[in-house]
Design goal:
two-stranded antiparallel ribbon, 15 strands, 33% helix, alpha+beta, disordered N terminus
Length: 337
């Protein structure tokens, strides 16, 4: 995340970073307990840019009255109604999304979300307040930190903001004292739908598309990639740079995660893969024990591309290619004479 200006103000007490990783939660018990404190919650608002930079948002007293309906009421109503309607909570790895099922994953799995929350928890005093000279068009998300003195730690509600939110300029009018006047300031519209709720180490996902758009995390693809990595580790002998492993390199690597979805790691042997890499001059190396050396993301990309059979040599020209998209040829057979 981009470095923020430093001040000497101390951050307020907040959830500890390790709690974002390890704490297991019961959303139904959480909702029942929250109902007692709901009217006295404190909500602090942070804006998140497209590059992940956070800003504190200063709100008027009139605007502050809208916070609970926008960020808390819908989530609380959904969960409490779900108690009577048989709502169940499942991890993304357990089942597909379906009616009356609330999906959940771990904050630790979503790197960009964990980074955002950790910034709020540990470096809030360095977060700049959003000003008029900042570019509102670059703001893509909003985070509400909800706290109460009697709650052990805050919870967070996260939403994606509509992209068409900047209304100022020619053709943008507003009615003021019965007269239309131009809009001279940016207008921020916060959606009312439930999207993401963070309680300690869990992310409750009401809208999976928002999770992917805000933080680049597709839980289903990540789960499949993890399983493929385990198969690769069982089928291939690999050697990594210090403190690296295959899961660490793949995690958060969108291109590699996408490619792993359809790969069959057992379709080729280690010797066949190394031989093919040598024939094509790809520079994939092996150590004295025959283990494939993967020192960085470049080596990882070459290795995964080989598994996906993405490199070919033309029988016609002898040129070598990396194929971005493969469509099997449909061979038309000549009719029998």
């Amino acid at each position: 995340m981009q470095e923020q200006p430093t001040t000497t103000t101390q951050p307020e007490a907040a959830v500890q970073p390790e709690r974002l990783v390890t704490q297991e939660t019961d959303i139904f018990a959480w909702a029942n307990n929250l109902f007692e404190y709901k009217e006295d919650l404190r909500l602090d608002i942070f804006l998140m840019s497209k590059t992940g930079v956070l800003y504190r948002a200063k709100l008027s007293n009139e605007l502050a009255k809208q916070l609970q309906p926008l960020f808390v009421d819908g989530v609380l109503e959904y969960v409490l109604d779900g108690v009577d309607n048989g709502l169940t909570v499942r991890g993304f790895e357990e089942a597909e999304s379906e009616e009356n099922v609330l999906q959940r994953t771990k904050v630790a799995r979503v790197d960009k979300l964990a980074e955002t929350l950790n910034w709020i928890v540990t470096q809030e005093h360095e977060i700049e307040q959003f000003q008029e000279d900042h570019d509102l068009k670059r703001i893509r998300g909003i985070v509400a930190r909800c706290s109460h003195p009697k709650m052990p730690e805050p919870f967070y509600v996260v939403k994606q903001l509509p992209s068409a939110q900047l209304l100022k300029g020619d053709g943008a009018w507003m009615l003021q004292t019965n007269t239309f006047v131009p809009i001279t300031a940016g207008v921020l519209r916060v959606p009312a739908d439930n999207q993401l709720l963070v309680i300690a180490g869990d992310v409750y996902v009401f809208n999976q598309a928002k999770l992917e758009r805000l933080f680049g995390y597709n839980a289903k693809k990540a789960s499949i990639a993890e399983k493929k990595v385990r198969t690769i580790e069982a089928h291939f002998k690999l050697r990594f740079a210090d403190e690296l492993d295959l899961q660490t390199l793949v995690k958060g690597n969108k291109a590699t995660i996408n490619k792993l979805q359809k790969i069959d790691p057992a379709s080729v042997t280690q010797d066949e893969l190394l031989s093919h890499a040598e024939e094509l001059g790809l520079g994939l190396m092996a150590d004295e024990d025959g283990a494939i050396i993967i020192m960085n993301n470049k080596d990882l990309t070459t290795f995964v591309n080989l598994l996906n059979d993405d490199y070919v040599e033309s029988a016609l020209t002898g040129n070598r290619y990396e194929i971005k998209s493969k469509r099997p040829l449909k061979v038309t057979e000549e009719p029998a004479a």
